[in-house]
Amino acid sequence: MRTDEQPTRISLFAPNGRMGRAIATAVADDPGFEIDADHGDVIVDFSAPSALQASLDRALAAAVPILVGTTGLDDFASRRISAAAKDIAVLRAANTSLGVALLSDLVERAASVLGPEWDIEILEMHHRQKTDAPSGTALALGDAAARGRGTKLNAERGRKGTNLKREEGAIGFASLRGGTVAGDHDVIFAGPEERLILSHRAENRMIFARGALAAAKFLVGKPAGIYSMRDVIDAL
Ligand SMILES: NC(=O)C1=CN([C@@H]2O[C@H](COP(=O)(O)OP(=O)(O)OC[C@H]3O[C@@H](n4cnc5c(N)ncnc54)[C@H](OP(=O)(O)O)[C@@H]3O)[C@@H](O)[C@H]2O)C=CC1
Ligand SMILES: O=C(O)C1=N[C@H](C(=O)O)C[C@H](O)C1
């Protein structure tokens, strides 16, 4: 029987990726965690959409919770996560930084207070290696804004061409790529003669790594179901 004083054992599904390496560094800096490739208390997956079923299968076979930090997941992947969450605890987070978890709450509240007269545009910038766009965080912030408005997300992506008048109630997304940017997100509320801009700047991917460890610790011992970073910050 493991006790609370023992370090939480983290199994990294993709240890050699940028996030895998960042999480290993965060573990090395924190005596509350250790890496255990084969007998983790929790599996941490930051990899690629094509790997999702394999990571879920590993968690199901070991009967341990899993943190899914991978982005670019489609509806089919969401259904796979829901199916796995019948048997194990799954925390899905497009962004594990504590700042973005809080930003999501702020965006939901702002969208609710400002109402549909304020257009919402989401701008994100990431490093040149990123393969998915819009970022998972941008889409999750769009979902938060739609929730605040009491609607489903109607996304306008990558506008190009003519006759592009804004669709009523849509949320626009724009993506920039370049350099080593760890992750910038701006949620712009454009109203009549004023703009409110809620922003987050990731200065280093260690913020995602430390948040991932907080999420992993939160998951240990949790019953089957789907969890989010909101659950993690609510438990802080
Ligand atoms: N939730 C969050 O806070 C964050 C999420 N992310 C997301 O995490 C994911 C990974 O990002 P990042 O670490 O930068 O990406 P990298 O490309 O650096 O790493 C991806 C890793 O996944 C592995 N991988 C890819 N496909 C498979 C597969 N089919 N089976 C097993 N392993 C596989 C790769 O292995 P190999 O090299 O052998 O191909 C590699 O080690 C992305 O979706 C990104 O958007 C990133 C940062 C923060
Ligand atoms: O690929 C990245 O690097 C990041 N991906 C996540 C996303 O798609 O939102 C989180 C963070 O912004 C960094």
From TrEMBL:
Q: State its Enzyme Commission number(s).
A: 1.17.1.8
Family the UniProt entry places it in: Belongs to the DapB family.
Q: Provide the protein's localization.
A: Cytoplasm
Q: Which residues form a coiled coil?
A: none
The segment(s) forming the Dihydrodipicolinate reductase C-terminal domain are 99-233
Where does this protein come from, organism-wise? Sphingomonas sediminicola
- What name does this protein carry? 4-hydroxy-tetrahydrodipicolinate reductase
The protein's annotated pathway = Amino-acid biosynthesis; L-lysine biosynthesis via DAP pathway; (S)-tetrahydrodipicolinate from L-aspartate: step 4/4
Domain named Dihydrodipicolinate reductase N-terminal is located at 39-95
* Active site residues according to the UniProt entry: H126 (proton donor/acceptor), K130 (proton donor)
Query: What InterPro entries does the record tag this protein with?
Result: DapB_C, DapB_N, DapB_N_CS, DHDPR_bac, NAD(P)-bd_dom_sf
